[in-house]
Amino acid sequence: MLTVARPPLLAQTVQKGSLTQPKTYEQNVPWKETGTRAKTADYTLDPHWDAHAPPQVRELTWTITRADAAPDGYSRQVISINGQYPGPLVEANEGDTLVVHVTNQLDELASVHWHGMNQNMTIFADGVPGFSQCPIPPGVTYTYRFKLEQWGTYWYHSHSSVQYIEGLHGPLIIHSRREAYQRGRDYDDEVLLFLYDWYHERTEVIAQALNSTKGYNHFLAAPPPQSSLVNGRGHFDCSKQALSQTPQTYSCVTPRLMPSLTLEPNKRYRFRMVNSGGHAMYHVTMDRDQFRLVATDGVDIHPSTQSIIPINIGQRYDAIVHTDQGGRGKGKTKPSSFWFRVRNQRICLAYDDAAADAEARVAVYYADPPAQGKAITKAAVVTDGVDKPEPTTTPIVDVLGPTCRDLDDHALVPVESLTKPNHEVRNVRSFATNFGVLTAMGENATLGRFFVNGVTARNHPYKPFLRDLHEGRNVSGDVAFAEFLDDVWVGDIIINNNDTAIVHPYHLHGRYFNIVARGPGVMTPEKWRNLDTSSATVPRRDTISIASHSYAVLRILTDTPGVWPMHCHITWHLAQGFLAAVLVHPNKLREPWAWPKESEDLCRAAKEPDDTETLA
Ligand SMILES: [Cu+2]
């Protein structure tokens, strides 16, 4: 059976009409108040969490609405979950079943993807319209139900166009008795740091402009953010607003205080850091202490000491920070307050916003007077700020320099390996990605788009591939496919980033990958055959930065049947067609489990015509 009908190879420049837009918004239109204020998220991890509790069902009920917020001082509408912005913290244990009832009260389509989850035999819960489900229409409730088979730091986000940047995202923390690093033994408390860039323009306006011949602010390339936020809190200098090409708002008030975090001295904190943004890649640093890195993308690793943590979109890093009082030099003591910095690597942006601050900062204070004994007296959480003198510390020198690259793979060796580096692999598939242009029909102008194997993805949200595969139809058309048939249990995916300048964070759904090779130049299947991966240190993660004119070879266990997106996690690039599909065990998808009644009901709840096309 031929499952994947090969799409025609498109040249970089082709004659083609512009994308169908179901809805249009004007650029530079001031925000209207909804009249409802969003509550800023409180990301306190439960200090009494029982990682040894028997497996249970964790049932959540979410209502998604618009609300007003001014995360960095600039007032605009955001998307809230249960009135909260950004979305609520979800905590669970490995082995639990997560059940989330999502009611969409927006006037647009919605979805929720669970970033990094294997979705083993639950592809229908992966949350990607056009791939694994139909979108959730306004007024409809849809339930995600899946078992958690991993542990660590994850997150969830909308997979409908560029919607998550509006606020439909949040952290997903999975505890386990099997974790290599345990609370009480390896650390005393934990701190969640949900880091992302923030835009003053409605994101759908930006995406639509990018997909027009005019571009956004006259650029075909993705725009820069106006600020960066930590747990929904940031700082924008409203006096600079005129420098920014963003709409006037009903109110912009520069926050008086910087976000703050109070820690107790002589304790070990596990920092769980997520880059849940749209475009900005960060270097996370502290003016005072260093990080003992213990996990990447939810995978426990052998610890290493780092002073700078580069974190690209979609990636997570866990690090233990020891708040000891020793000085760096003889007789010196460390300052009792210092800055935690989230430094936007502006070199990774196509262009910059003159009004934007290059970093988000959190003022870290040590509790006063110092707490005695082992017990943590207060849960550590980032707050709106405290009335104390600001830290006077200066940033460390960024020895990595301005760069969009990942940490060296040697620092990311998993405690437990998944695939054997010398595993015999016979199956290889390739993706080559590049920026290109489409010539719009009848116009002497071009659209900026991304291409994977010559195809720029177009998303048909009401025609999920999974439904077609389940019902025995061929899938074809508007994305590039890589296919691993039902008798293949391990495979390699070559990714060649053929762009001239841009580093992209590539994310694969459905399975971790092991990075068995990477480097400059182009990897071909012929060269791949001679690749010696027997001595490779093999990091395992779900999002990898690949530089321009460079490649990576990703090894996956092909044991989770599904049709899994592989895409750039720069949300603007995804909206410009940077999306492909990895099809694993297609025959298995014909079985009843793969398309539950709820999935079919959701597609039937769709009121839109079947041929609606939205941004990827
Ligand atoms: Cu990209």
From TrEMBL:
NADP in keyword set: no
Keywords: Copper, Glycoprotein, Metal-binding, Oxidoreductase
Molecular function terms, GO-annotated: copper ion binding; oxidoreductase activity
Entry similarity comment: Belongs to the multicopper oxidase family.
Keyword Oxidoreductase: yes
Protein name: Multicopper oxidase
Entry-linked InterPro entries: Cu-oxidase-like_N (IPR011707), Cu-oxidase_2nd (IPR001117), Cu-oxidase_C (IPR011706), Cu-oxidase_fam (IPR045087), Cu_oxidase_CS (IPR033138), Cupredoxin (IPR008972)
Domain Plastocyanin-like: 64-178, 190-325, 493-587
Organism: Acaromyces ingoldii
Alphabetical list of SUPFAM superfamilies matching this protein: Cupredoxins
